[in-house]
């Protein structure tokens, strides 16, 4: 217990000593800090509960002493001490935060209106800058993400917006990261969630896709007809070389017809078949 009390006293005196080294407090500032230190030491068993503060592993504390930041490094994680009446602190969460970009009506480079939304992942990498350089880093980053999405998509045409989502997300991340660097914010990832087109444009694109499919189908059918014609030409040349092959093909066709339909079929008999009997 004695060693614990000694460590608390030592940390408290160190805090008071650091208060004297902090910037140019002036005569009044020195007087207030010394008075606060004396008051804290005299009523230590009571004031220790006001001096002792704890921050979690994922948090940091930015301490202000008489309106000035005490050190260029945030405190934490763990236990730290502050002087009552002169010190105040702000907790900063260092965990990654995600938020949705509301759907934005954007006019693309080729004058098409689309509705695009996305998601942004960011974290605080400099607690002091996030507190001292911007009033609300989270809210400012959300507004900046919306304007950045509009600016980036305004330089793209519709085909690029629909096909190059990864490139758009990378460009947004780079622009956001550069803009929020002074705020102590690190943008880790940006994703485009959905791109919504007007109903008339969707119908036009569907009609265009259907026409393209029909055109490809006609080309394929024409190629098939051409290949079939070439095969028929080659077959006719083979049959022309052997007249008996024509008769065999004729009989094969009759066999196919008789097998498919149970009906009486009258067909002409070639004279070439009957000529042998007629001579007899």
TrEMBL record:
<dbReference type="GO" id="GO:0005886">
    <property type="term" value="C:plasma membrane"/>
</dbReference>
<comment type="similarity">
    <text>Belongs to the band 7/mec-2 family.</text>
</comment>
<dbReference type="Pfam" id="PF01145">
    <property type="entry name" value="Band_7"/>
</dbReference>
<protein>
    <recommendedName>
        <fullName>Band 7 domain-containing protein</fullName>
    </recommendedName>
</protein>
<feature type="domain" description="Band 7">
    <location>
        <begin position="50"/>
        <end position="209"/>
    </location>
</feature>
<keyword id="KW-0812">Transmembrane</keyword>
<dbReference type="InterPro" id="IPR018080">
    <property type="entry name" value="Band_7/stomatin-like_CS"/>
</dbReference>
<dbReference type="InterPro" id="IPR001972">
    <property type="entry name" value="Stomatin_HflK_fam"/>
</dbReference>
<dbReference type="InterPro" id="IPR001107">
    <property type="entry name" value="Band_7"/>
</dbReference>
<keyword id="KW-1133">Transmembrane helix</keyword>
<dbReference type="InterPro" id="IPR043202">
    <property type="entry name" value="Band-7_stomatin-like"/>
</dbReference>
<keyword id="KW-0472">Membrane</keyword>
<feature type="transmembrane region" description="Helical">
    <location>
        <begin position="28"/>
        <end position="52"/>
    </location>
</feature>
<dbReference type="InterPro" id="IPR036013">
    <property type="entry name" value="Band_7/SPFH_dom_sf"/>
</dbReference>
